[in-house]
Specification:
Elements: E1 7-8, H1 17-32, H2 42-50, E2 51-52, H3 55-62, H4 64-88, E3 93-97, H5 104-107, E4 115-120, H6 122-128, E5 138-142, E6 160-164, H7 173-186, E7 190-197, H8 200-208, H9 222-226, E8 231-237, H10 248-258, E9 266-272
This protein binds S-adenosylmethionine.
EC number: 2.1.1.-
InterPro entries: Ppm1/Ppm2/Tcmp, TcmP-like
Protein name: Class I SAM-dependent methyltransferase
Amino acid sequence: MTQTRKVDFSGVRWGSVEWTNLGTLYLRACESRSPNPILGDDAAAEAVDRIDYDWARMRRYMLPPANQWLVALRAARLDDWSAAFLGRHPDAVVLHLGCGMDTRAFRLRLPRHVQWFDVDQPNVIELRRKLYADRDGYRMLGSSVTEASWLDETPTDRPTLIVAEGLLMYLPQSEVRTLLQRLTDRFTTGELLFDTLSPMGPRLSKVFSKGIVKWGTSDARELERWNPRLRFLEQNSALAGYERINSTPIRLLYRLIHATPARNYDVLNRFEF
Ligand SMILES: C[S@@+](CC[C@H](N)C(=O)[O-])C[C@H]1O[C@@H](n2cnc3c(N)ncnc32)[C@H](O)[C@@H]1O
């Protein structure tokens, strides 16, 4: 029997950004191991198997039986929108912003000519490189998305898919606006997929998470007013699709939340430009 050597992540500090990324990776891995998964992120499960970390402690903190579904529903919706775009544009460029340890590039069946860029802060990309390597059609870029220079690395001659999951709420509104302007100035045509938190997000964060959430909006359609190149296509609650959850008590819990205004706390948005 061959044994793959584990990659040592024990230096990842509890509570750091890198730790948060391991947390969502772990939730996706747990969901992929459940019966009838919604996302079925086998690449996340493989990554967790390869990483040497205190997963038992992570489990006690992340509570996968309740929380894995939220992460899976959100990621699955963005995957579906991404797959539809790549089906229409098999030569697309993809910018996956704030990728963390997400395995979207590996769980989607990418057409051969797609060029995928996973972008995150340098410290996150450094960690990511312990697991994955650049290859034809796949590159990692370590930079803040609020810098302008990383964009010079990306081709502009193809339809462009931009995915930002769990990212824009951590940027001040002025930086979100500047980023969107830079993106639509550089790329001629494509789609922008992202989630937004309600204005409650920054307020709650001031109390519970040291104010790390900076931007919230009651309706992401306001982006059309900021940037006339952006056209709204659709939006969904991150909880939409809860009917597929394969656990009766958790499904009922999500259904209950979905029946209240809290369903609009985290919303997934699709725009074109
Ligand atoms: C909540 S995590 C989400 C990670 C991943 N998208 C997922 O769903 O698992 C937020 C990610 O955004 C990244 N991020 C935050 N601000 C950033 C910035 N200015 N530039 C690049 N990445 C940023 C963080 O480093 C982190 O990896």
